[in-house]
Amino acid sequence: MIRMNENKDIKHERDNASEGLTIYRYDSPKKAADLQAAYKDAIAENDRKGASGSGAQRRKRTSSQTLLAAFLAGALTIGGLAYMSDRMNLFSGGTANVVQTSASTANPASADAGVKTASLQSSTEDFAAVFNQANPAVVEIGNYGVENNQSRSNLFGSSRGQSGSRQQSLPTNEEPVLMGTGSGFFFNKDGYILTNQHVVADASELKVTVPGYDEPLEAKVVNENEDLDLAVIKVETQDGKAFPTLGFGDSNQANIGDWVIAIGNPYGLDHTMTTGVLSAKERPITVAEDDGSEHKYEHLLQTDASINPGNSGGPLLNTKGEVIGVNTAVNAEAQGIGFAIPSSTIQDAVKEMMKGTTESSL
Question: Compositional bias of type Low complexity: which residue ranges (predicted)?
Answer without folding.
Answer: 157-169
